[in-house]
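ugh ok fine here u go
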Amino acid sequence: MLVPSPWRADFPAIAALQRQDQTYLDNAATTQKPQALIDALTHYYANGAANVHRAQHLPGAHATQAFEDSRSKVAQWLNAGDIGQIVFTHGTTSALNLLAYGLEHQFNPGDELVISALEHHANLLPWQQLAQRRDLKLVVLPLDAAGLIDLEAAAQLIGPRTRLLAVSQLSNVLGAWQPLPQLLAMAKARQALTVVDGAQGVVHGRHDVQALGCDFYVFSSHKLYGPDGLGVLYGRNAALQGLRHWQFGGEMVQDAEYQHATFRPAPLGYEAGTPPIASVIGLGATLDYLAGLDQDAVAAHEAALHDYLLHGLQARKGIRLLGAPQLALASFVVDGVHNADLAHLLTEQGIAVRAGHHCAMPLLKRFGLAGAIRVSLALYNDSADLERFFEALDQALEMLR
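structure:
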């Protein structure tokens, strides 16, 4: 089956990697960048960098305008109600820690925070540590055989003491869309706050946060073909108003005395210090690029590639998939083969995949595993990439068995 990518030429790193005999299949960790982003970063640095929101000179005005234009583009991409609901952070992890500290005052001993068994450490550890600080109970929703959060169990575990539900949209290990509408409805029925980790989901399709109905939605720019070191926190206005400030410094101050200070509301009140200005501007350029693509064509391409990957893995003896992957990635183990050994031999053949626990150690332990191989796809991958992967996989397995 031939699955070409019409967008491959938009990503110069793919051609550079190909010249190095490298095939990049680690997109769940980070994606390669489109030329549109590279051009935006070059333009910003080559034409006068400046700080934002605080300078009267022309470079500062240009930087501020471009920065806030990007905030508007993010709001449009997520269909947020207004641009004030978009807070820039340093990544998904930063955004989730902001929430864990900013919401801490709303919880009392004995209250329950609910997560799921498949969460990335970034959506586990902030809540785990918050529970320990405030004497809260951390409740973990189990999974069903397909790797989805068990809704029957969730209905029993999301109860009258539930104050917050924090779950991933798309598992970075199992590649399965989680039943968010049902889970969010259960939490809302208990008047609990809801947090969606969109780090993996945001790159696959357009997601309407108003229709989703969550209080907070977070993601990282670098997984959405954007720059590193930048994250986004979307929050409903009422939910943002309930956040306490957690970092203090320049820009977020409304007024300051030696013994007292008042702080700005969202979004600037949660963006203390100089923000990652170039990255924010670059994310805006990336969203312009993505918005110009045929979204149906991208979805069809990703689905065809995913089927190609699954069929190839299932056709090989001794390979066991984790869960029931639905889109963009698959994690697997091979009977009698250590994942690190297999990853090493694939690396020697120029195949970039991920091996290990994927920052989800409790989930891998649930499967009785120390690690697994993960192959993850992006819109610039094609069937030739997967053919090279399968050829290298067969050679590696022949050596290891």
